[in-house]
């Protein structure tokens, strides 16, 4: 496992202090799979959980993979053991919708929130989500919603919310939720010389109303937004 402690500490400092009394939401995204955005998001959430006064949520947008839950479960010595799951939708909202909806025995539609669980990690200030893909039925599909509702509610229950978006070459989820994030950090593998794809993702996030915060060169160093302008004109 690559130790990114120093890099995420520098990133934490470079993002600046959050607005007083308002939870910060930081999304991590990459243009291509394999850049390590999930690893960076998880390490950033761990760093934040050791400093936050209240809860830190790690929300995994890659619903069918649930890689964050699996990675944390596989490394209890680093992250802490997973506790018993609860609903990850404190007031019943969801950032996705399942179509067609599941029918309940009484004929009503099952709420989308029932598919998303939250697991306490270690002492319980760090939480990670897991989508219950196992209870989907044949023919059902899941779509990320362009809505702020879920994120606005979750802010009331956390100090920091870290969102792990799937790579842009697999899904547009990171762009869809970008307008509701305070910042989106673009992760690029340190040995990847081609910045065309990250530039296109930056432009897509900006066009959607999101706020790209800068580049994180995975396995190298954190760069500030000013340098991003120089690298990605």
UniProtKB/TrEMBL annotation:
InterPro entries, alphabetized: Bact_polysacc_biosynth/exp (IPR050445), P-loop_NTPase (IPR027417)
SUPFAM superfamilies: P-loop containing nucleoside triphosphate hydrolases (SSF52540)
Protein name stated in the entry: Sugar kinase
GO CC term (a single one): plasma membrane
Transferase recorded as keyword: yes
Source species, domain of life: Bacteria
Keywords: Kinase, Transferase
Taxonomic source organism: Caulobacter mirabilis
Molecular function via GO: protein tyrosine kinase activity
Keyword Transferase on entry: yes
